[in-house]
Amino acid sequence: MATILFDGVCNLCNGFVQFVIRHDPQGRFRFAALQSAAGQALLAAHGVAAASALASPESVILVENDQVYSHSAAVLRIAGQLGWPWRLAGAGWLLPGAWRDGLYRYVARHRYRWFGRQESCLLPTPALKQRFL
Hints:
- The protein is an alpha+beta fold.
- The chain has one domain.
- Helix content is 42%, strand content 14%.
- The chain is built from five helices and four strands, in the order βαβααββαα.
- It has helices spanning 11-22, 37-45, 50-55, 71-80, 97-115; strands at 2-6, 29-33, 61-64, 67-70.
- The protein has a four-stranded mixed β-sheet with strand order 2-1-3-4, sandwiched between helices.
- β1 (2-6), α1 (11-22) and β2 form a beta-alpha-beta unit.
- The protein is globular and about 40 Å long.
- The relative contact order is 0.21.
């Protein structure tokens, strides 16, 4: 099962998690906030320095089959598994990685200003609790 690590206080990131949950009826993805102990342990287990990820949690991180994907690669891999019409986002792979990640970083840098932030991480509903680490 793939795990999506996200900035737990970011409204845009929380919206993305809710979007994935709605469009992933098979429950292929689990979730953990980057700020959580489970998120930090998963990063450490895959050789990613948790301190650097937490210092600037600007990326959604996908851990899948012992591989770690970040930035646009993570989003495109996630979208590709959500089915029609979200699979169309796969066309993004045609763009050079520097362009995709540049756009991704631009949105990430401004996400708090544009979408706001919460004081604490998202708390899942009891029905979704088993999908969160």
